[in-house]
Amino acid sequence: MGNVTFVTGLLLFSLGWFSVSDSQTLEVKSGEEVTLLCSNFSSSPTLISWFRVTKRAKLTCIASMFKPHEPASFCTGFQSEKFQMSTNISTVFLKIKQVDLLDSGLYFCGFRMSYQPVIVEATNVEVQGVLDGLPKVMSMILGALTVILFVAIICLALQIKRLKKAIVTNLDTDERNRRTGSQREVQSRTETRTERTV
């Protein structure tokens, strides 16, 4: 989000806009409602507007209002069902209903003074979607699967070792069982002699 602030500042500086106050950050969850505030800075009727800059550094007008008792006029692409601009003389509000990830961005209100736009308030809105916690959950799941896989590999290696040992033992036993009686006698005599010499 630091890039957005930098790009926005550069954009506003190049347009000759200046800020009267610092921006604040609001974190909201997807589907919630958020109301942005802007101090009413003019005692005489003036055109007050809300704007938004998104991550793509696209500056868009949301709505404008000339007099407190008149309804706001919405800019292209912004409908009154989602956005609501109002004032109580001292404060200008922008309500965003059921925010989603596309509503993230830097919102600011302003007016014109001597044909120069002036930014009065700026608020950085960060919408936390359902998928925001997904990387943490995925990391935990992958970690658990790695541990399970590691334990399974160790168990399989031990089982293979036991099976090899059992096969070798069975082969020795089978070899002894297959010998004829005379071969067994010779082997037992040989084993007996070996034991006596030891």
TrEMBL record:
Query: Which residue ranges does UniProt annotate as crossing the membrane?
Result: 137-158
Basic and acidic residues bias locations? 186-198
GO process terms (BP): immune system process; response to bacterium
Q: Where is this region: Disordered?
A: 177-198
- Give start and end of each Ig-like domain: 27-109
Q: For this UniProt record, give its keywords in alphabetical order, as a comma-separated list.
A: Cell membrane, Disulfide bond, Glycoprotein, Immunity, Membrane, Signal, Transmembrane, Transmembrane helix
Its chief place of residence is membrane
Q: Where is the signal peptide?
A: 1-23
InterPro entries, per database record: Ig-like_dom (IPR007110), Ig-like_dom_sf (IPR036179), Ig-like_fold (IPR013783), Ig_sub (IPR003599), Ig_V-set (IPR013106), TCR_complex_component (IPR052051)
The family database entries (Pfam families) matched by this protein are listed as: V-set
Q: Which GO terms describe its cellular component?
A: plasma membrane
Name of the featured protein: Ig-like domain-containing protein
Q: What is the lineage of its organism?
A: Eukaryota, Metazoa, Chordata, Craniata, Vertebrata
